[in-house]
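Bench notes, afternoon.
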Amino acid sequence: MDAEGLVRPVVESAGLELVDVAMQREQGRRTLRVIVDREAGIDLEAVSEISERISRRLDLEGFNPGPYSLEVSSPGLERPLREPRDFSRHVGERVKVKTFRPVEGSKNLSGRLVEAGPDRVRISTEAGERAVSYGEIASARTMVDWNEELARKPGPRAREGDGR
């Protein structure tokens, strides 16, 4: 049975976006990982609600790949990019892309996502711009530039009389 096919309608009917569904084996246990999001972000209550709904749907449909745990979460700060629409939403952000074959000498590209067209993306790397077709991408995710993030956010302010 296709887990994504069972999970997607439940997630979308709740007004959420299905980012990823993957069955993974860790420490001898199987875990069905479901990553969900929405434009305004997602909170713990929404994750809890959708987790219950997904669990009920899987049980009702007889999803039984053997013993497994269900884990539902948000994508976090560094988000996987899978579909062209995922790349389009993150134009201008820093990304890390791994390719199946070397692109101008490297399978690992890091830089700013300049463009996400219908057939390929363009990434501005330290070595210049690189164009990669979606079919060449093995995996991709956004990257947080912590130096940039920390420079944007002011640190804690000292209050009068607290000795700082």
